[in-house]
């Protein structure tokens, strides 16, 4: 398949066929793809190729290709329609803390503190030591717990030995941190060369007042929550944060363990300081009710995820319609206000209210027409009559005043 330019920030500049990158066929199993990825990731890991910029780009290409082929839905989309069917913004790249430097590590720590999900790679030194079988493995008996403190980008390895009966009942391995440290829970499979190859990893998540991660081998499909899925798309569209929240529920690749010793590890994923933790291994036989509840609740969550996918379509349509009618409401309100304002203006034109106009030292009253009031004409044409009338009023007032005075004199 021809390469194409990549628009997202997390993928290589030129995209090659992911099957070609990992040197696997289109009908390869998940395990074959995983094995190919592990070998190539270890080969091109920045820790081992500090002076080779080309290896860093190849490492990104390998990680990007695996992010497609390891996800059943993305693999199906790619097989059907190629890169065009994939949402580039939703493709996340893992960050190698050992290659970031102090300043960039501080920025990554800040974003993580603000709640931005950040994927980090596992140190190549840890993977290589495990693959060579040179790691120290401490026993972790079923039904017990061990507490410890692991340095950043280092790992503590534990061996969990189980019998046939215990394997049939199911096994649970969980890690918690009361200090809310960041860590990874890792599961390694026996390699043909005698070492251990990474098979599963779970990043810690904050749950209540602690951070935790767990692996559940219960003979039925269990799921893990990957909060980095669609993280960029969700950041761009806050409403998508709700609708895409359950999209991070991904099926775990391994659902059961066989009798024997299995290797787990706690990897320190803090940005600057060691991670404190408590790891415990349990046989599910004593937790049958809890096991059934887990199966039931995950079935409900999957059903709810499908319902939300349909509801999102309905919601988006309703939201678009709401925006449309809201815009019309604003326009109609403005139109009605303007019409009523014009009506009020017309009403106010029907009035006999007069305004004073002064010209050349003389004044007259006007209501917008040139005619004069009759009373004004009468006064203007009969000035003598007006003065005679004024004299009579004055003499009347005087006579009335004098009579009162005379009356008051008599009383005295």
From TrEMBL:
GO term, biological process aspect, one: positive gravitropism
Domain of life, per lineage: Eukaryota
Entry keyword Protein biosynthesis: no
One Pfam family cited in the UniProt record for this chain: DnaJ
Region listing for Disordered, in residue ranges: 1-30, 364-397
GO terms for cellular component: membrane
Annotated protein name in UniProt: J domain-containing protein
Source lineage: Eukaryota, Viridiplantae, Streptophyta, Embryophyta, Tracheophyta
């Amino acid at each position: 398949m021809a390469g194409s330019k990549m628009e997202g920030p997390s993928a290589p500049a030129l995209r090659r066929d992911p099957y070609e990158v990992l040197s696997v066929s289109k009908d390869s199993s998940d395990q074959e793809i995983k094995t190919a990825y592990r070998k190539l990731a270890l080969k091109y890991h920045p820790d081992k190729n500090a002076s080779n910029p080309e290896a860093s780009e190849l490492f990104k290409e390998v990680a990007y290709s695996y992010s497609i082929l390891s996800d059943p839905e993305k693999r199906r989309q790619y097989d059907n329609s190629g890169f065009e069917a994939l949402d580039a913004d939703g493709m996340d790249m893992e960050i190698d803390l050992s290659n970031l430097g102090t300043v960039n590590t501080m920025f990554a720590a800040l974003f993580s503190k603000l709640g931005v999900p950040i994927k980090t790679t596992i140190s190549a030194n840890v993977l290589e030591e495990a693959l060579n079988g040179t790691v120290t493995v401490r026993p972790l008996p079923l039904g017990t717990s061990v507490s410890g403190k692991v340095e950043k980008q280092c790992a503590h390895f534990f061996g969990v030995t189980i019998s046939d009966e215990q394997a049939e009942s199911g096994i649970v391995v969980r890690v918690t941190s009361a200090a809310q440290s960041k860590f990874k829970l890792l599961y390694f499979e026996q390699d043909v060369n005698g070492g251990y190859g990474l098979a599963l990893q779970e990043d810690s998540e904050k749950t209540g007042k602690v951070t935790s991660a767990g692996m559940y081998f219960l003979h039925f499909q269990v799921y893990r929550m990957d909060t980095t899925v669609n993280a960029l798309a969700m950041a761009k569209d806050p409403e998508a944060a709700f609708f895409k929240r359950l999209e991070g529920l991904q099926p775990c690749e391994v659902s059961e363990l066989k009798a024997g010793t299995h290797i787990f590890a706690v990897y320190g994923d803090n940005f600057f300081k060691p991670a404190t933790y408590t790891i415990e291994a349990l046989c599910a036989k004593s937790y049958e009710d809890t096991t059934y509840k887990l199966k039931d609740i995950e079935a409900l969550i999957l059903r709810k995820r499908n319902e939300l996918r349909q509801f999102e379509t309905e919601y988006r349509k309703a939201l678009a319609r709401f925006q449309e009618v809201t815009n019309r409401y604003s326009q109609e309100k403005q139109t009605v206000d303007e019409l009523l304002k014009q009506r009020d203006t017309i009403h106010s034109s029907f009035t006999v209210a007069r305004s004073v106009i002064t010209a050349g030292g003389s004044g007259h009253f006007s209501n917008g027409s040139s005619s004069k009031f009759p009373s004004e004409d009468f006064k203007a044409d009969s000035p003598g009559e007006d003065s005679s009338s004024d004299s009579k009023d004055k003499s009347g007032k005087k006579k009335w005043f004098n009579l009162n005075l005379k009356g008051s004199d008599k009383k005295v």
